[in-house]
Here is the input.
Amino acid sequence: MDCREHDHRRCLELSRRISAYLDGELDEAERRSVEEHLAACLACACCAATLKRTVELCRRAAPQPLPEPFARRLDGLLARLLAAPRVPKRRPRRG
Amino acid sequence: MKTERTPPAPAAVDDDDALVRRILAGERELFRVLVERYAPRLYTFGRRMCRNEPDAEDLVQETLLSAFRHLPEFRFESKFKNWLFRIAVNACRKKHRRARLAAEEELALEDLDRRLADEAARPGAVPLWARLPLERLLSEELSAQVREAIGSLPEKYRVVLLLRDIEGFSTEETARLLRLTPVNVKVRLHRARLFLRERLKGVLEHGLQGA
Here is the structure.
């Protein structure tokens, strides 16, 4: 079907579920309905593809390494911390 | 007759748990392993949350110091990583309160919807940047642009995107970390991604011209 022919009112409603679709968080029926729409609507397929690529780019954006001077300061702090006597317990912190 | 019984699975067991148990049993030096493992991730999180180097360094230091001091109170009810990031998120919020940052901005769904409606009215092919193999796009320059785009997200969206898409926490874990509902996490994540997509679209379409 040419995507220009179908009812685009559904597109906005579907677009709100695209992230959940990409994350595999939709149930089977919802997933099927999104996939049927994506197969018929170029605009939504384009939205899904570009959103998926955006997430991939975020995940692959290089982490920022610790600056060398800070890594040295952290090491010094750690050495002092580990050499110090045990710190008495404070209020509980759930974890 | 003897019946074999499967032992119950221990809750949230990972390598970190074993390390923490040994640290608590007296091998304090092993805390260095946790620092080596998490300091770079906390720093990356801090740089993207605080948007400057000194605050990111403070965040890492405060988080690790607090984790060390409170480690005897860790109850193994969640993963160590989740506990550590809870401390980092709280330190970050405290820092932002102190700095009296501007009131939280919203990413209006209507604006994002309008752009989607425009796209739907003029559908085109999936652009090259979403079709090329990912490896062909990646570069240090693009990474810097992605970091900048993430940095331009309002804080409440940025933190959700960082925890979900960068740190890999699940929706439920992120909701617990931020004390939000899972639905709220999903809505914020989706808006953050749409916002970033708009920012990156311009960069990538321009950058790939003539590719």
